[in-house]
Amino acid sequence: MKIILFFLILIASLNSNGQCWSKISAGDYHTLAISVDGELWAWGDNYNGELGDGTTINRTTPTFINNSSWQEVSAGLSHSLGLKSDGTLWAWGRNGTGQLGDGTDIDNHFVTQVGAADNWMSMAAGANHSTAIKSDGTLWAWGSDEYGQLGDGGTNSAKPAPTQVGSETTWKKVFASEYNTYAIKQDGTLWGFGRNNVGQVGDGTTVHKNVSVQIGTATNWSEISSGRYFAVGIQTDGSLWAWGDNFYGQLGDGTNIGKTIPTKIGAGTDWKIIACGAEHTVSQLTNGNVYAWGNGQNGALGNNNDANQNSPVSVNINNVQSISCGSYHSLAIKNDNKLWAWGYNGSNQFGNGTGTNSLIPVEVACPTLTAISFQEAANSFKIFPNPVKDVLIIRNLAGVSFERVIITDLTGKKIREQTGNQTQVDVSQLPPGMYLIHLASEGNKSSTKFIKR
């Protein structure tokens, strides 16, 4: 009776509230999002399992992944990182260079914890490397190191597990691009390492760096975002700075000339949010107006054409709380928690199910788990015996097919996972206690408790 009441309450909640967004991260061709309820969702390209749903099936609309308390997400080229509110770090997707940090180079289609540490504070995914900062102020990196983007001063060999960058304990924020890593220390100084063929590190040279070097002498850096071969930053006084490649005008200084050191863009001191795609930049002022510049291919600038722009042009959207850019598309969450997208949509990274590009921002409907679909899932199976000693039997009552069977503890930490429409789950090795079993299919999830004795 209590379980039925629980599902009735959950059904009413899901039916009345769309799962709109608090956080968003655009990979090259996939998207990760956290709902206002702390749920993890994903959509777009899934060739390497970067969506984390246990498959390699592309998803054209937002697909529910996990209902734990997610705090941050970061999408790389074909892998994904997520940070939970309990300080644990998670990774999934492509792992050819060890970017998942699990000590292997084997792809993983499931959301899986990175090590056992629970003091991670922030993280960022590059193309094929990952970076993160712990609450003790240490900086860590792993994955591809072909241009020194791990900053360990070594031989540019890939690292399949988190490796500390230097010995400093004063790191505050970290940012990653395809082949570079940038980080801000607690004193407001900016540091970078990795590929530097066109000055994208920002130290005035064009020599690759495999150890962190300070970028300029400023001590008031606030935010950084980086594209394929360039970076853009905002200082605490609201000024905008850019450096690196400028072939498409992605630095926004009105020229197409590259810069090897941070160069101030305009005289404005009211820049607030910054995000870079492969070759374009999107930013918002404190008054809520949004501007874009750089490569306009497929409408990435959102100004109703696909021409390149080497100075900021207005985007037909305002009052956003966050912006994230993929290779040739852009995403923004407005203050009402709704998602808007523009640019390239060939892998359905918008999440609107069309696969159609857009020259202007288009609203992406909030996904809603309807009462009917969730109730069907909730009433479609039962488990026995309960309590159980060795094997838990799942009886399918309504012919509903499930893609995954997941067992977690009561905090949501995954204990084990099976794919396919399972009928038996071996729990003999579980310690005695209470657990949750989740049966999941696309867009639907049904859960209940069981006791292992």
Molecular structure report:
- The protein is mainly beta.
- The protein folds into two domains: about 20-365, Regulator of chromosome condensation 1/beta-lactamase-inhibitor protein II (Methylamine Dehydrogenase, Chain H), CATH 2.130.10.30; about 370-450, Immunoglobulin-like (Sandwich).
- About 5% of the residues lie in helices and about 45% in strands.
- The chain is built from two helices and 35 strands.
- The protein has helices spanning about 1-15, 370-380, and strands spanning about 20-25, 30-35, 40-45, 60-65, 70-75, 80-85, 90-95, 110-115, 120-125, 130-135, 140-145, 160-165, 170-175, 180-185, 190-195, 210-215, 220-225, 230-235, 240-245, 260-265, 270-275, 280-285, 290-295, 310-320, 320-325, 330-335, 340-345, 360-365, 380-385, 390-395, 405-410, 415-420, 425, 435-440, 445-450.
- The protein has a four-stranded antiparallel β-sheet with strand order 1-2-3-4, with no helix packed on it. It has a four-stranded antiparallel β-sheet with strand order 5-6-7-8, with no helix packed on it.
- Helix 1 (about 1-15) runs antiparallel to helix 2 (about 370-380).
- It is globular, with a radius of gyration of 23 Å.
